[in-house]
Design brief:
Length: about 500
Amino acid sequence: DLITAPIEEKHKDEEGVVTSEGWLLAVEFAHNLNRETNGIVGGDTLDTIAKAHGIGPKELAAANNLPVAGILKQGSKLTIPGFKGDADGYTYTVYNNNETIAKVVESQHLGGTILADLNNIPYKFTEAKGKATFQLQDKDGAKITGLFPGDKLKLPKDSSYTVAPGDTLEAVAARHNLSVSAISGLNADALRNADATKPLDAERKLTLPSGTGVVVQEGETLGVIANHHALKVEDFAKENGLEAAAIVKTGDKLKLPSSTSYTIQTGDTLASIAQGHAISVADLASANKLQPADVVSPAVVLALPEVDQYAVKGDSLEAIAKTYSNVTADSLAKANGVDANSVLRIGQLLKLPADTWGSAPPDAKNPGTACVQHAVPDSSFAKLPGVGTAVAETPVAAPTTASKDVKVEAHANDWVVTGDGAAQPPNKGVVAVAKGAAVAFTSIAGLHTITINGKVEGGNLAAGASRTITFPTSGQFKITCDFHPDMLANIFVQ
């Protein structure tokens, strides 16, 4: 997106060439990545642990005699229950008209403070005009960035767990120091016939009564409806005697295969789902062992027994190193003056080694050529290994007159050829010289190679450096750069 942003006259690069804001930002990012960017130890925070385990919303709702679900009225006031950081609690004013109990819990760090108090973790809490800060401390009162990976935490007795994509029942059990049977026993309906080693469904689905169809809602397509019902669009279309590309209209009634389920979407209610399938709320609720007034959400939530040893998740140096190129746990440790096997606090900033290349190369499943396709000409993209067949280049004609004084300058992404004082357009330079002529190459900006007919001459050309190359034989010499596929110039030696 940055590189392909539109060119605007008001944006110019360091050479004064008109470019785009996106390109300037991309260049700035690249420089910062190599020189100034820090790595960070990722992992759980008390707030994220609380959110994943439903800690905070029910406590706030109970303190205010409100349901957990629903939109809060703008201007209303909530009592934030007291805790060690503020034993008396305080009053919070609902300033926005789309706030919910869950959003207030997050902004006021209520779940995090509950966990900190339960586990005797020191912290400093401040609140002023609705803005709350929550800073962990060590036993001496000094600020710390976060917990250590592997720390064990006690959770409140009525905690639950919201399934994340990729979770398996085995992994969830191990993280909470529980047996698989202890969790499955409390969630018999949700985990019926679940394989403990395979990823759990992270999207909640509702069973539709036999014979249920679907009513097309505004903006929906066959593909959208099929996706909401875990169907292949081709199968769904065939069920209704349609082509997969057929256009459906709002209000159209379509058939669904038997035993089809519906994946709950954000904002859905039992009433809206029932209406969209032309069935009663009572029938939909009954099919899913719910009450018509029950609130539904897309999250798959598992009940948990009492948890005394939740294992805090966090990155190791080895895991962090794998997210960069040319970085190992040893080189990362050395750059930060620690041992490669050190367990560091979550949130700690890390210096990257000076020779870090950036993000790690993609794997075979995602070769990462899509962005390149839009950053270089089609002819260059087609030459990338494994991408496609090279596009034939347009033949270049030799000038009829040789130039006596020729120089070639490299800018950020182009060669500019100047013959006898006349500069040619970037990457379109064509010049003729006499046999034995010397041509001066200079890098005005950036690091480049002087690649002549596919062979690098003299190593890399750094910014500010110059090199003179003599052409002793006749022929056409194509000048490129291995670092920048778009750079091109042609020199004909007569």
